[in-house]
Amino acid sequence: MHVYLNIIKQFLTCQKTNVKKLPASRISNELQLIMDNLKKIKREAESAIKDNDLFSFTEFEKHFIQANTYFRHRKLRAEYISKSSDEFDYASFHKKFPILLATSENPGVISYSYVNYIKKLLREGRISTAIGYHCSYVSLKKFRGDIPFTAMNPSYLTEYENWLKSQNLSKSTVGIYLRPLRAIFNEAIEDGIIKREKCYPFSERKYR
Hints:
There is one protein chain. The protein is mostly helical. The protein is 55% helix and 2% strand. It has helices spanning 2-15, 29-51, 57-65, 110-123, 127-144, 154-165, 171-190, 196-199, and strands at residues 202-203, 206-207. The protein has a two-stranded antiparallel sheet. α1 runs antiparallel to α2, α4 (110-123) packs antiparallel against α5 and α5 (127-144) packs across α7. It is elongated. The two termini are 35 Å apart.
């Protein structure tokens, strides 16, 4: 909701509109057109958010706000990108990403792959996406700790999903936590940590 409110605020600022006039029972044709445009923007914004696997304000602004003629565009802040993992300093991210301080050297547990992938995202400047992966890990750790990939079978994932729903989280929020996990499984397979045929719990119909 706060995303939409910020959109409305920016739109009305660009249109130089007196917000107090909008709720009136009778408004001018000019204000009615603005109201119609606001409804259109809301529908398009909701659709854009729904289409993103992992929502981030940076990506939303880049692909929705910046591409929309209704808004006054500002210059997007360039995010720092390092070409080498050896020269990249993660210290400034430790507060926002406590997982970076994890000392596990066991490739079999989920934190190992989460840490490596989050570091990769940070080096590429994909900060918002890294936040999504970190939230996914924190949620999983809160559920049953930093466990091995082999323990995350269909039964585990079903129980985890039910646990999330018991906290009154929406279906889309549950997906926000599960999609990074699926990607981390694929990373672990590509790195040779696990084998797909032995412990990959995902399928086209959910879990297997």
